[in-house]
Amino acid sequence: MTVDDYQADLTQCLEIPPFSLPADEKAARLGAALARLTRHHRQHCAAYARLLDVLGHDEDAIGSLADIPFLPVRLFKEYELASVAPDQVFKTMTSSGTSGQAVSRIFLDRATAAGQSKVLARLMAELIGRQRLPMLIVDAPGVLKDRQSFSARGAAILGFSLFGRDLTYALDDDLQPNLPVIETFLARHAGSPILVFGFTFLVWQHLYLGLRASGHRLALENALLLHGGGWKKLQDQAVGNAEFKAALKEQTGIDRVVNYYGMVEQTGSIYLECPAGHLHASLFSDILIRSPADFSVLPAGQTGLIETLSVLPFSYPGHALLTEDLGTLLGEDDCPCGWSGKHFTVSGRAPSAELRGCSDVRASHE
User: Fold this and answer.
1) Which of 107, 148, 275, 284 could form a disulfide with 82 if both were Cys (CB 3.0 to 4.6 A apart)?
2) What percent of the chain has pLDDT over 90?
3) Domain 3-78+271-363: which topology?
4) Do the domains spanning 3-78+271-363 and 116-261 agree at the CATH topology level?
5) Rounded CA gap, 115 and 133, in Å?
6) What's the mean pLDDT in 37-42?
7) 203 has a pLDDT exceeding 50
8) Which residues of 200-225 are buried (b: 16+ CB within 10 A; e: fewer)?
9) What is the pLDDT of residue 143?
């Protein structure tokens, strides 16, 4: 697979509404693209090729999405995996991590970075159309310090800021609501649609709780809030999706709140929450739910480890990743919202014992 083939695949898909393909047609398109990516990474990433050799993977035996070999996502915390030469690396992204934790390092060439931006734009058009909206970012401006190496927060802000204008940061350097800045922004765009974006935990812990503590209510009735990441911290505080939305509406007036599921290891191919409250896989991505016991694919209704599939990773072997998140497939092509594709929920992180099991599977083949 050449970079021209990769770009041609994406260009063809970008012409199709992202939640329109029926299951059979999507599986055929996605399966062919992922098989090509598997061959590409095997040829250009020595570590990936060794792993497939040890596993005895036969690329001619791929009959379904479940046959695409997956990597545990934590491998990117332990190894530098790239399928392009070092001089082709355009940007390096890192995952979120608490102090002392290893972070993933994701190496992007220009083609992969461009693909991420184009796909993200196509998905965002489903929410806000083609226009750029005044954008309030729930973070501090210092998050974008190094323009060549981005954290997950910085990468997300950079990606989504393409769909905004008059970019304004809602938090100060101490991560407290910057009320004068916010009020001035709202006055400039009174009565106009507004896009609010931020990591879930920052929106709750620093914007919402900060506003509540000060007794300040914002006038964001015309806003769309797009948020993702950090649910584990909120679940530890017994804050679910419904409670999150209700509290934000009370304090800010925001009535339209959209959650998304994504990760820095597959930037661009996010899973958007539909009006029915379900996360959806677009034609650029898919999910499988695997048993933590034997990694077999589970049917709808059963909870297991989420495997994410994406056509975007060309510069690194991240097109099929077993995450450390638990989720449940709800169905495919039958969501009440009318969007095609698999729809699912995410229920939190897997217990540490199950994650060690993933590592043991990897280690047994090294």
Assistant:
1) 107
2) 67
3) Luciferase; domain 3 (2.30.38)
4) no
5) 22
6) 95
7) yes
8) bbbbbbbbbebbeeeeeebebebbbb
9) 77
- pLDDT score for 154: 76
User: Do the beta carbons of residue 231 and residue 324 sit within 8 Å?
Assistant: no
Q: What angle do CA 161, 165, 170 make, to 5 degrees?
A: 70
338-353 CB burial, b ≥16 within 10 A, e <16: ebbbbbbbbeeebeee
Which residues, in sequence order, are CB contacts of 123 under 8 Å at separation 6+?
A: 18, 270, 272, 282, 284
Average pLDDT value for residue range 66-80: 93
Q: Which of the pair, 211 or 232, is modelled with greater confidence?
A: 211
pLDDT digits over 141-165, tens only?
887 765 544 566 777 888 888 899 9
Instruction: Name the average pLDDT for the chain.
Output: 88
CB atoms within 10 A of CB 161: 16
Please give the average per-residue pLDDT across 284-291, as a whole number.
97
Contacts of 340 (CB under 8 A, 6+ apart): 19, 20, 21, 22, 23, 26, 333
Partners of residue 97 on adjacent β-strands: none
Sign of the CA dihedral running 346, 199, 113, 43:
negative
Amino acid identity at 231: W
List the alpha helices (DSSP H) in 68-208.
75-78, 110-128, 152-160, 179-188, 200-202
CB atoms within 10 A of CB 242: 9
Please tell me the distance from the alpha carbon of residue 82 to that of residue 43, in angstroms, as a whole number: 11
Task: State the Cα–Cα distance between residues 107 and 84, nearest whole angstrom.
Answer: 9
Return d(Cα 354, Cα 293) in angstroms, integer. Answer: 8
Give one DSSP letter per residue of 8-43, joined into a string. Answer: HHHHHHHTS-TT---HHHHHHHHHHHHHHHHHHHHH
CATH (residue range 116-261): 3.40.50
Domain ranges of the chain: 3-78+271-363, 116-261
Q: With the CA atoms of 112, 113, 114 and 120 taken in that order, what torsion angle do they form, in degrees rounded to the nearest 10?
A: 100
Q: Which pLDDT tens digit goes with each residue over 223-241?
A: 999 998 766 666 666 677 8
